[in-house]
User: What shape does this take?
Amino acid sequence: MKNDPVDVLIIGAGASGAAVAWSLADTKMHILCLDQGGWMNPAEYPSTGRDWEAKFYGEWSSSPNIRKRPEDYPINDDNSPIKVVNFNAVGGSTVMYTAHWPRLHPSDFKVRTLDGVADDWPVDYDALTPFFEENDRMMGTSGLSGDPLSPLSHPPMPPQPLGLSGPLIGKAMNKLGWHWWPSDTTVATMDYEGRARCINLGHCTPACAQGAKSSTDITYWPHAIRAGVEVKTHCRVREILTNEHGMASGVVYHDKDGVEQFQPAEVVIVACNGVGTPRLLLNSVSGKFPNGLANSSGLVGKNLMFHPYAQIYGYVAEPTDSNRAPPTCLWSKEWYDTDLSRGFVRGYGVQFVRGAGPVFEAVVSEQKGILPWGKDHHRVFRKLNGHRLGFSAICEDLPEEHNRVTLDPVLKDGHGIPAPRIDYTISENSRKMMDHALARGREVLEAAGATDLCVNSPIPWGGWHLLGTARMGTDPARSVVNEWGRSHDVKNLFIVDGSIFVTSGGVNPTSTIQALALYIADQMKQRLANLFD
Amino acid sequence: MSDSKELTAAQRADLRTVAAMIVPESSEYKVPGADDAAIQADMLATLGRDTALVVQALDHLAKLAGRPLAELDEARRDAVGQEFRSQGGAAAATLVRVVLQCYYRDDRVLRSLGLEPRAPFPKGHVLPDGDWSLLDPVKARGGTLRGASR
Assistant: This one.
């Protein structure tokens, strides 16, 4: 079945797809977005039910391989110590994220210049600054301006309360003389743009029933749709087709009834994340593009970066916030910049974790061997539950070509489309960084009086940040898209998600992903008359 | 190995026994054990996608015990429990998780922990604002952010 052509076709309605759609809407072009998922219903979010914690082990798991919703596609990540986690719906993984909102630092765009490793980005922080600001307004951020060790941000809402856990962490960090600061988050701390303020449901990651956590289904999309952008849900794109001129002509997708359709388009924008995007490009094979679309460099799928998380947590005598608050409230940039005396290059950001709910605490502690079976179970559980403090280091992952996304030769999704396969190892540099972070985390927790320390390094189901697999650059031999997101090979094909990252920084990437998407949309608007030259 | 998606009477009995081994009743804390009838009913009613792995775990447990778990003396039962947990892999972990997730949402258990037995939404929770003067030393220390050039 063939549809009427559109001017712009966006594949993916997540963080970057929503931002680029909203920005391009003021061109009055006919814009269509296809997403393999649907609109989520907050009334069905886990925190509305008594089984709210149990759902995280099933239909609300962060792993698509466990969750197995019809909207999900399987991922073979057996050959990776870090498993891919994501969410597939309008809003994408912003429906299911912690809402921690740091930005890449100015130095992150100049890694080769400053530290002699990896590559510099073809854009810099200054170019993105107005788009960071615009994005913060659109998503609605909370935080405290003036952090001496972070890029200047101006969150429109005040920071989250420190609660019970924050002061315990703050005192420990002060005792050690180390930097800490209230995190910027996309949790609304006051009523904002029609969204209600946070009421501390605590279960933020698997979606916010209150609507206080910013996901693009409730931030960008209502604005974009009012401006005329069309969204078609439950439409899974199989491949991007090209014409005799080597330009993208549109996409083949399976609609909600499984019927294969062709959607012609003048411009195709891919926003499927660092795993979904290379999967789609590698599945888009033709005579002119035998190795996949936009892949003359051979780099589509390569240089996958995850951010290995080094996590350590323990238990204090004082009560902590447990599940009664957003999970993250403070960050530290103490170890963000390179200091070669530490034995590794680059650095890591830290996010402090307030605690956990009773089921999670019981299940994880039993697995760790600190919560016994039998008569002592109750005494020990009361010592653990509601007393946890956590330290998680987001370690900068440098690009390495052997860390990659390819197509699995056997595994397919529900439509018979080849699924992605992940091959990934943690580098020696990252290992040293993780060990350093664990040692610092141990000092912090001990300074807070914590005992029974437990380690997850890496966090196995911690592959939230999917970066680098269609990197941007000025050299077509060393990058997939140019400095404003256009494919070097296919001049009406753009990529706007985390796959275009050149390096990963040591922070959660969504703020930067969206700022970059807005920047690319702005570049497109400035070049509309000669977009394909 | 049983291929049934439903638990047999013997499997239910073993589930009840192993649940009590994990979380026994406590008069000190005034809480039921995980073998409590209401908690067991919750487990059976909500097994859902965990059924296959729980059945697999119970088959493993039955093989280790060689007879109904409840018929073993305490020392032997504890030994079987330890072997089951250390060698049972994902299936054993799933069974234990099912027991704990139903136990720690029971009204009586939550109340004993000082928690309200309710869904987080719509009431939420109130959080103290905290002592913001703790940031004064951070501000005083200052520091500089590395720039984009050497």
